[in-house]
Specification:
Layout: H1 3-19, E1 23-26, E2 33-40, E3 51-55, H2 57-65, E4 73-76, E5 82-87, H3 89-92, E6 100-109, E7 115-124, E8 128-135, E9 142-143, E10 154-157, E11 160-164, E12 171-173, E13 180-181, E14 193-195, E15 202-203, E16 216-218, E17 225-226, E18 239-241, E19 249-250, E20 262-264, E21 271-272, E22 284-286, E23 293-294, E24 307-311, E25 316-317, E26 330-334, E27 342-344, E28 357-358, E29 364-367, E30 380-383, E31 389-390, E32 401-406, E33 413-414, E34 425-430, H4 435-441, E35 452-454
Parallel strand pairs: 2-8, 11-13, 12-14, 13-15, 14-16, 15-17, 18-20, 19-21, 21-23, 22-24, 23-25, 24-26, 25-27, 26-28, 27-29, 29-31, 30-32, 31-33, 32-34, 34-35
Antiparallel strand pairs: 1-8, 2-5, 3-4, 3-6, 6-7, 7-9, 10-11
């Protein structure tokens, strides 16, 4: 290679090297300067819709302590990752000023309090185009005091997990500093398993909703609340063990339409929200003795459910709580009752077409109506001793019923069409010595008087 050729190659190499950094180019309008910022990630991909700000030296120092400091200029990158600023000569280069030292900042903000940014000091001269190339990545030059903790996969802000750094992550183990999971943090994620740390106290609304590959969740004993819809539509989640947690309530629709076959509940659980387990695949439900409320539709339309065990002290079973559980055969009760004002709301067991045996809780005082409508296999219903009122159609299944048993010495008040059709009822059993009391109270139903028999 001759000397001239060598020098030409060297000059070309130097020019290419300069193109990879910030550079100056002349512009057409006299005295006007242009700063063009090109933002890429570490893989070289354009970063669209990023906030780009321009500060002078004094404002930049203020910005480092207060990310809400107003910038001299601000723009957002386009789909090619570019932002462009025009600096008028009369405004930016007054007097004998021949150059401006400015800080270009690319900013990410997670919420109003949490920021991280990348900055670069550039010198801008009158009448020149300045091209600034900036790369974002895990290592920000500056992180605000409240910005997300540095974690390989998780965005963590002040003990709150707000989401994922890498949406391709499938297995997570939470670090010890996490105290809660924000609403929707992992909604529609690809996560397959998660181990939550001791010390975590709350899981937000819709936190894992729609994570259709999530199959395993390990919950800590410190957990106090799980938000509504938190695991809704997690169709691969077949089991959940809540027994060691500090939960007192399961919120509305928490596990709705998930793949749950088994759910182990904490003994201190007091209430289950509306549609909390609706349309899951549970095979049996055993509710703990402390439970006082099952709300509307909590276990409705579970086609796989076969047995239910209710606490005798329960105070409320909501409307349609077990509606259309078409394979439910047996409902049992356990424990003791200390108060006797429990309510079963409308249609709680309606259309449970396989139901054959039911023992209602001893706390029961009122059935609001249509309780067993459509329960075609049910042959015997026993009403506990403290039942005081029975609402419309509550005991009318629409099918043959061999025995209707009342344990209370005082006959309950009946609504409209409460009793089965006369031809569908074999016997109406009452306590010893109470036949006349029942006939007197039910004088409006004289055709049923001959069906009344005493327990014997």
């Amino acid at each position: 290679m001759n000397k001239i050729t060598f020098l030409s190659v060297a000059l070309l190499t130097l020019c290419l090297l300069l193109q990879s950094c910030g550079k100056d180019e002349p512009v057409e309008r006299r005295g006007t300067s242009i700063v063009e910022v090109i933002v890429r990630n570490p893989q070289g991909e354009p970063q669209a819709d990023k906030t780009v700000k321009v500060f002078n030296a004094s404002d930049y120092e203020t910005f480092k302590n207060n990310p809400q400091t107003k910038a001299l200029l601000e723009s957002r990158t386009d789909k090619e990752g570019k932002a462009r600023f025009t600096l008028d000569a009369e405004e930016w280069f007054k007097g004998s000023r021949s150059a401006q030292d400015l800080y270009v900042v690319v900013e990410e903000n997670y919420d109003v309090r949490n920021y991280r940014w990348w900055s670069q000091l550039v010198t801008v001269r009158p009448g020149r185009r300045r091209i600034v190339r900036m790369e974002t990545g895990d290592e920000a030059e500056h992180i605000s005091p409240d910005s997300p903790t540095r974690h390989k996969y998780l965005l963590i802000s002040d003990g709150v997990v707000t989401g994922l750094r890498d949406s391709s992550v499938t297995h997570l183990v939470f670090p010890a500093e996490v105290r809660s999971i924000a609403d929707g943090a992992f909604r529609d994620s690809r996560i397959e398993s998660v181990v939550l740390n001791e010390g975590l106290e709350s899981i937000g609304t819709q936190a894992f909703a729609g994570s259709r590959q999530l199959s395993a969740v390990t919950l800590p004993s410190s957990l106090k609340t799980i938000g509504s819809h938190a695991f809704e539509d997690c169709i691969a989640l077949t089991g959940i063990d809540l027994s060691a947690t500090a939960l007192r309530r399961i919120e509305d629709e928490t596990f709705r339409e998930s793949g749950l076959k088994v759910a182990t509940l904490p003994q201190a659980l007091e209430s289950i929200g509306a549609q909390a387990f609706m349309a899951t695949r549970l095979e049996s439900v055993s509710l703990p003795p402390a439970l006082r409320s099952v709300e509307d539709g909590a276990f409705r339309e579970i086609a796989t459910l076969r047995t239910v065990t209710l606490p005798d002290g329960i105070q409320q079973i909501g409307s349609y709580a077990f509606y259309r559980c078409t394979r439910l055969v047996t409902v049992k009760s356990h424990g003791t009752a200390t108060t006797y004002d429990g309510i079963i709301h409308e249609a709680a067991f309606s259309d449970c077409t396989a139901l054959q045996h039911i023992a209602l809780p001893q706390s029961l005082a009122s059935l609001k109506g249509w309780t067993f409508s459509g329960c075609e296999q049910l042959k015997e219903i026993t009403l506990p001793a403290h039942v005081k009122e029975i609402g419309d159609y509550a005991l009318r299944t629409g099918f043959a019923l061999a025995t209707l048993r009342f344990e209370g010495k005082e006959p309950p008040t009946l609504g409209n069409n409460v009793l089965p059709f006369l031809g569908q009822l074999s016997a109406l059993i009452v306590p010893q010595g109470r036949t006349e009391a029942y006939r007197t109270r039910w004088e409006a139903y004289p055709s049923y008087h001959n069906k009344i028999k005493e327990e014997g």
